[in-house]
């Protein structure tokens, strides 16, 4: 009985007793959820247009952030190194398409998935070789991102919002809006969607597979850079980010591998729920650090009821 | 050349369906077994045992287990490392609770525990397929590692949170723990790997293997011809996790000597997956070839700069190693997506046909 009350009653009592703390927790969860959603978004783009389960999206975040910081360290002004990093991500997209994807067109999904793990290892090794393995500081101020904090007082309590988190949320929203506009209102964007619907049909109306793949990987690179800046300003830039990037996978499961809406909603939901679970259930009852698995188990439970995720395409199977 | 199938007549169905219908294959296997059982143990140094022979065997056993699940039954799993951990922790608990227990029995029994855990985490495979399932197995990976850390009973409440292998005798010889010699450990591992491989070859050749292959190729079609999918998939999870669990128990007891939870993290899972894929999915031989490549590569990379007289820092070397492994994976996938086993199959075909260049019978 006492245990049941600890599981089902006490956490909610705590929530109501300190609503400002609850809001703080939800805000923290939302911010990390936005970042999960961004990583998942880059992933969904690539999966939709090429059916490639791109494991390298997480490491692309680290690589982009490291390039940005590394360029700034050798004396390049912040905004120019931002532009140069975009250039590097473009070259990376071209390189991956040329060297890895083109010879592997038409192979089974698992082979392409393994190839992206190969790319991941290459980028990890290469990144550490060039930039070193230690934690670096993100050049937040240099890029003109405000670093103060906003203090609100809801219900007579205290709620601290970091300005860089607010910037990250605004930036993410802007990025998503721009991306949706691109996909829906430009020729190139429609080509990406066409390729996602049906490869052969898209090829037969003259859409170039190679161009679109480079484009999609480049967009994923841009998203990776934005994610890297946002996350780096919170926790510094290092390869530890990659583990956090794995969190994007349950987000994908929850939202569905093909759905942009799913990636966003799934990311926010997982970000908030895992924080709430950790604070109100994990730490008092389970010894903490439940964030390591909560997202996966949650996604697993949802998948048992909806095998294609919340927003994924309905799987129709024929013999 | 070398392979001459001319003159080898099969007069009975039994001979035609034999494990090695061509005499040369059996000879080759004999040579490999003699090398593994007699030549290597007599000649190998302590360094070779610890960095090459023992890890190759253990990793190939783990890859064999994964290959049953992924290569034969078609269920992609990213949680191999955690299942190895289940085997290792189960073995540790048994050995510390029953100190009199025979080591071989403990190793074989520890697989049973990981098989049970494997079946539980395999249940979603009845509803979820493909990459969704792969991510679902990640739930097992992260949850189990967390459990190894938080459930103090598993490591007998010791302060370090790690498990330490005690000294265990096997038929009067120290086989595990700090006192054991590498040769003894090598022979125990080799015996286990040989027996399990033989069993697996026969399972995959038989009824169960065909059921798995049908499930892999198209599960709805398999269901229509009367295969019980639930049984087929759960059986694959059970057999696969059993072998992976035994490999995990040997990994800690006969090689590493101690283990922390993060030894079994996702990197281990991926390493085993690399071995299975580079070796060749749906092949038994491939696991060994893949394991040799992945285990030997860092050793070779460490030696090469010394030969060339270059002075490279060990950290740099390690990063280079990661890069080269990544490049190799991509390279091998482009060169031969069906893995090293397929390369061997093609080479064997060429040998049989030699000196005629054209493609003949399979």
List keywords for this structure.
heterodimer, A: mainly alpha, ABC transporter involved in vitamin B12 uptake, BtuC, two-stranded antiparallel ribbon, B: 362 residues, mainly alpha, two-stranded antiparallel sheet, 14 helices, 4 strands, globular
Account of the 3D structure:
- The complex is a heterodimer of chains A (319) and B (362).
- Chain A contains 14 helices and two strands.
- By secondary structure, chain A is mainly alpha-helical.
- Chain A has a single domain (2-305), classed as ABC transporter involved in vitamin B12 uptake, BtuC, CATH 1.10.3470.
- A two-stranded antiparallel ribbon of chain A has the order 1-2.
- In chain A, a hairpin with a 6-residue loop joins β1 (149-152) and β2 (159-162).
- The radius of gyration of chain A is 21 Å and the shape is globular.
- The mean pLDDT of chain A is 82.
- Chain B has 362 residues and is mainly alpha-helical.
- Chain B has one domain: ABC transporter involved in vitamin B12 uptake, BtuC.
- Chain B contains 14 helices and four strands.
- In chain B, α4 (80-97) packs across α5, α5 (103-122) crosses α10 (229-256) and α12 (285-308) crosses α14 (339-353).
- In chain B, a hairpin with a 2-residue loop joins β2 and β3.
- The longest helix of chain B is centred in the last third of the chain and has 28 residues, at 229-256.
- In chain B, the strands form two sheets. Chain B has a two-stranded antiparallel sheet with strand order 1-4.
- The interface between A and B is large, with 51 and 47 residues.
């Amino acid at each position: 009985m006492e245990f049941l009350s600890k599981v089902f009653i006490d956490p909610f009592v705590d929530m109501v007793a300190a609503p400002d703390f609850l809001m703080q927790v939800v805000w923290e969860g939302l911010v990390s959820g936005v970042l999960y959603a961004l990583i998942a978004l880059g992933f969904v783009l690539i999966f939709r247009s090429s059916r490639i389960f791109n494991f390298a999206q997480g490491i692309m975040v680290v690589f982009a952030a490291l390039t940005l910081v590394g360029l700034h360290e050798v004396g390049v002004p912040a905004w120019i190194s931002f532009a140069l990093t975009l250039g590097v991500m473009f070259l990376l997209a071209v390189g991956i398409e040329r060297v890895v994807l083109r010879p592997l067109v038409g192979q089974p999904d698992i082979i392409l998935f393994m190839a992206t793990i190969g790319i991941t290892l290459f980028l990890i090794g290469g990144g550490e070789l060039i930039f070193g393995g230690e934690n670096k500081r993100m050049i937040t101020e240099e890029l003109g991102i405000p670093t103060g904090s906003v203090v609100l007082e809801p219900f007579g309590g205290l709620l601290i919002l970091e300005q860089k988190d607010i910037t990250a949320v605004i930036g993410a929203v802007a990025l998503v809006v721009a991306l949706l506009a691109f996909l829906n209102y430009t020729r190139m964007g429609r080509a990406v969607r066409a390729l996602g619907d049906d490869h052969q049909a898209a090829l037969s109306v003259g859409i170039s597979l190679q161009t679109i793949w480079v484009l999609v990987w480049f967009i994923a690179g841009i998203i990776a850079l934005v994610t890297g800046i946002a996350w780096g300003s919170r926790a510094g830039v290092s390869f530890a980010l990659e583990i956090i990037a794995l969190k994007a996978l349950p987000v994908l499961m929850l939202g569905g591998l093909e759905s942009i809406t799913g990636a966003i909603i799934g990311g926010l939901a997982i970000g908030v729920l895992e924080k709430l679970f950790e604070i109100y259930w994990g730490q008092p009852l389970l010894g903490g650090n439940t964030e390591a698995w909560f997202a996966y188990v949650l996604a697993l439970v949802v998948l048992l009821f909806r095998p294609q995720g919340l927003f994924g395409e309905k799987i129709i199977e024929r013999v | 050349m070398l392979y001459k199938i001319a003159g080898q007549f099969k007069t009975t169905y039994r001979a035609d369906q034999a494990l090695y219908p061509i005499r040369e294959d059996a000879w080759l296997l004999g040579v490999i077994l003699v090398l593994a059982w007699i030549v290597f143990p007599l000649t190998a140094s302590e360094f070779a045992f610890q960095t090459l022979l023992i890890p190759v065997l253990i990793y190939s056993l783990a890859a064999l287990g994964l290959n049953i699940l992924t290569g034969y039954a078609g269920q992609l799993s990213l949680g191999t490392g955690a299942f190895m951990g289940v085997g290792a922790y189960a073995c540790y608990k048994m050995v510390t609770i029953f100190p009199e227990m025979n080591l071989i029995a403990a190793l074989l029994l520890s697989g049973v525990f990981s098989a049970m855990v494997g079946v539980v985490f395999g249940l979603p495979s009845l509803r979820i397929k493909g990459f969704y399932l792969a991510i679902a197995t990640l739930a097992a990976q992260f949850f189990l590692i967390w459990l190894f850390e938080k459930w103090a009973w598993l490591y007998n409440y010791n302060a370090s949170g790690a498990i330490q292998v005690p000294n265990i005798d096997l038929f009067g010889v120290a086989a595990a723990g700090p006192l054991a010699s590498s040769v003894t450990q090598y022979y125990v591992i080799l015996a286990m790997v040989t027996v399990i491989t033989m069993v697996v070859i026969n399972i995959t050749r038989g009824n169960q293997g065909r059921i798995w292959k049908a499930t892999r190729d198209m599960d709805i079609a398999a269901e229509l011809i009367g295969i019980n999918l639930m049984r087929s998939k759960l059986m694959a999870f059970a057999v696969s996790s059993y072998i992976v669990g035994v490999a995990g128990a040997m990994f800690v007891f006969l090689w590493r000597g101690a283990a922390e939870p993060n030894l079994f993290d996702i990197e281990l899972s991926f390493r085993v997956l690399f071995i299975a894929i580079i070796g060749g999915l749906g092949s038994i031989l491939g696991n060994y070839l893949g394991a040799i490549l992945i285990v030997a590569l860092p050793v070779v990379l460490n030696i090469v700069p010394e030969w060339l007289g270059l002075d490279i820092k060990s950290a740099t070397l390690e990063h280079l190693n990661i890069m080269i492994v990544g490049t190799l994976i991509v390279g091998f996938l482009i060169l031969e997506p069906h893995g090293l086993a397929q390369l061997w199959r093609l080479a064997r075909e060429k040998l049989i046909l030699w000196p005629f260049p054209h493609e003949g019978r399979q």
